């Protein structure tokens, strides 16, 4: 599938095995490309790169070196192909925290991790086909967020910046507190109210039954959290 919903994603190609860029991707890109000081000359890690859309935006914005990490080989191949098609030199790595840490630290770390709360044992009636690993993140949505917060100081150079995008339903406060606990300076720098997409629509009844959201809710707030290492 070639996406044309946004100028940023117009040249990004995905498949049914790879997360197609959407509002969370675009919100993260908007915040990353308007960071004070810009990206020129910086080293950037895009952790959980998927199609590579955020990494490509970083490289297009003048980053000196971009590393893109994803544990899904299909996603990594997709990110590599999109980078080559864009004529950009991005180091795409199949892996997770160990690989990201081994190639770091970085001036800027960006991540749109899986953050959708999901039943511990998947109920086939609410499980969508496709790359559920791209969004499912355990009952509290924090399967990747918590280790990412814990790893943040080691991923960043001093004065480095981390940007994470997530939903209010995976614990904005928990992310802010977790990043402060590891010594980072933290702000919520962007919020965007969006209609539920197909995944959240499919989860809404389960989340309501679990007490994770109000009945009848059909919108969520996406947030971008910025953390700096001083
Ligand atoms: C929500 S998608 C984001 C894709 C892309 N960055 C974007 O914004 O459009 C999350 C991605 O994280 C990857 N992923 C999930 N768990 C991971 C982990 N522990 N380490 C690295 N990548 C992971 C998935 O394979 C998926 O491609």
From TrEMBL:
<dbReference type="InterPro" id="IPR007848">
    <property type="entry name" value="Small_mtfrase_dom"/>
</dbReference>
<dbReference type="Pfam" id="PF05175">
    <property type="entry name" value="MTS"/>
</dbReference>
<dbReference type="GO" id="GO:0008168">
    <property type="term" value="F:methyltransferase activity"/>
</dbReference>
<comment type="similarity">
    <text>Belongs to the eukaryotic/archaeal PrmC-related family.</text>
</comment>
<keyword id="KW-0949">S-adenosyl-L-methionine</keyword>
<keyword id="KW-0808">Transferase</keyword>
<dbReference type="InterPro" id="IPR004557">
    <property type="entry name" value="PrmC-related"/>
</dbReference>
<keyword id="KW-0489">Methyltransferase</keyword>
<dbReference type="InterPro" id="IPR029063">
    <property type="entry name" value="SAM-dependent_MTases_sf"/>
</dbReference>
<dbReference type="InterPro" id="IPR052190">
    <property type="entry name" value="Euk-Arch_PrmC-MTase"/>
</dbReference>
<dbReference type="GO" id="GO:0032259">
    <property type="term" value="P:methylation"/>
</dbReference>
<protein>
    <submittedName>
        <fullName>Methylase</fullName>
    </submittedName>
</protein>
<feature type="domain" description="Methyltransferase small">
    <location>
        <begin position="25"/>
        <end position="117"/>
    </location>
</feature>
<dbReference type="InterPro" id="IPR002052">
    <property type="entry name" value="DNA_methylase_N6_adenine_CS"/>
</dbReference>
């Amino acid at each position: 599938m070639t996406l044309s919903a946004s100028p940023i994603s117009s040249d990004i190609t995905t498949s049914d095995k790879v997360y197609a860029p959407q509002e969370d991707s675009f919100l993260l890109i908007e915040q990353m490309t308007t960071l004070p000081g810009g990206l020129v000359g910086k080293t950037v890690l895009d952790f959980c790169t998927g199609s590579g859309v955020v990494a490509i935006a970083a490289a297009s914005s003048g980053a000196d070196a971009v590393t893109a990490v994803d544990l899904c080989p299909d996603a990594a191949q997709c990110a590599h192909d999109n980078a080559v098609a864009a004529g950009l030199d991005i180091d795409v790595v199949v892996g997770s925290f160990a690989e990201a840490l081994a190639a770091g630290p970085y001036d800027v770390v960006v991540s749109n991790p899986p953050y959708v709360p999901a039943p511990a044992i998947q109920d086939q009636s609410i499980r969508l086909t496709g790359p559920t690993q791209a969004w499912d993140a355990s009952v509290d949505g924090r399967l990747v967020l918590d280790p990412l917060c814990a790893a943040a100081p080691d991923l960043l150079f001093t004065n480095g910046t981390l940007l994470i995008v997530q939903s209010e339903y995976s614990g904005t406060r928990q992310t802010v507190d977790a990043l402060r606990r590891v010594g980072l300076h933290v702000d919520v720098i962007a919020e965007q109210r969006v209609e539920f997409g197909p995944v959240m629509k499919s989860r809404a009844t389960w989340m309501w039954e679990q007490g994770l959201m109000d009945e009848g809710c059909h919108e969520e707030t996406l947030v971008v959290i910025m953390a700096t290492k001083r």
